[in-house]
């Protein structure tokens, strides 16, 4: 059974792993860019991920890959227009991966129920008021700088402490704008303005993000740090590394996993959960 909104928002207390399948309606995403731009292809991919056990489908119309170009709200809405209602009609719970309140509003009006904002409300502060008005859960992610420049020369004195401080500040800003604290999800932002050692430290110590008291989402899927550890260049061959990183995060208390390969994640968490339930 796919998770309910309550299951998702209480997952940090229950330990239930929530699998979020990625649907990028973009020409340029680093792993699946250009594959799901047509309505039929996007809906078929969403249906496949639902059948494989996805709890949420995260739909985005703007790539946030390092060096990526911005996409206007009108263009994002145009890309999402035919696809969002069709994916909603297929029975999926949808989160909208955008930093723009107009795009988020359009998505909430046409079938999305969760907002996934990789800028944590910095790109467009009106996104907080929107989430508050609709009672929509919102994911706030850490990013150093912006996608265009974030990998230029990322530096931290203490990456885990700095990411936690940032997330606590953005959480407080969202609450000040009217978002109910229980509806806030936090994400350390794997790959967003981070070198290999920063990504590994955040995964190793994700329990400190969890200690902020919110469900924690992680998105290690197929990312470059897996290639840096293993020497595997092709993103779609980084599935095993994705699972290793996801399971490490789950042991640290993160519970929401944004992945390209839903079937593999569902299988891995079923086994991990069965082991964990033994006395
Ligand atoms: N990563 C990406 C996009 N959105 N959202 C959250 N909350 N956390 C993440 O780690 C995250 C995210 C980047 O991955 P992808 O969508 O596969 O690629 P692209 O940005 O090139 O579309």
From TrEMBL:
Residue span, Pterin-binding domain: 17-270
Naturally occurring in which organism (per UniProt): marine sediment metagenome
Q: Which UniProt keywords apply?
A: Folate biosynthesis, Magnesium, Metal-binding, Transferase
Which protein, by its recorded name, is this? Answer: dihydropteroate synthase
Instruction: State a single Pfam family of this protein.
Output: Pterin_bind
- Where in the sequence is the signal peptide annotated? none
Q: What is its EC number?
A: 2.5.1.15
A single BP term in Gene Ontology: folic acid biosynthetic process
Q: Which PROSITE patterns match?
A: DHPS_1, DHPS_2, PTERIN_BINDING
Cited InterPro entries:
DHP_synth-like (IPR045031), DHP_synth_dom (IPR006390), Dihydropteroate_synth-like_sf (IPR011005), Pterin-binding_dom (IPR000489)
Would I find Metal-binding among this entry's keywords? yes
What's its catalytic activity? (7,8-dihydropterin-6-yl)methyl diphosphate + 4-aminobenzoate = 7,8-dihydropteroate + diphosphate
What are its cofactors?
Answer: Mg(2+)
Q: Which Gene3D superfamilies match?
A: Dihydropteroate synthase-like
Q: In which pathway does it act?
A: Cofactor biosynthesis; tetrahydrofolate biosynthesis; 7,8-dihydrofolate from 2-amino-4-hydroxy-6-hydroxymethyl-7,8-dihydropteridine diphosphate and 4-aminobenzoate: step 1/2
- The keyword Phosphoprotein is assigned to this record: no
An MF annotation (GO) of this entry: metal ion binding
Mention any one GO cellular component term assigned to this protein in its UniProt record: cytosol
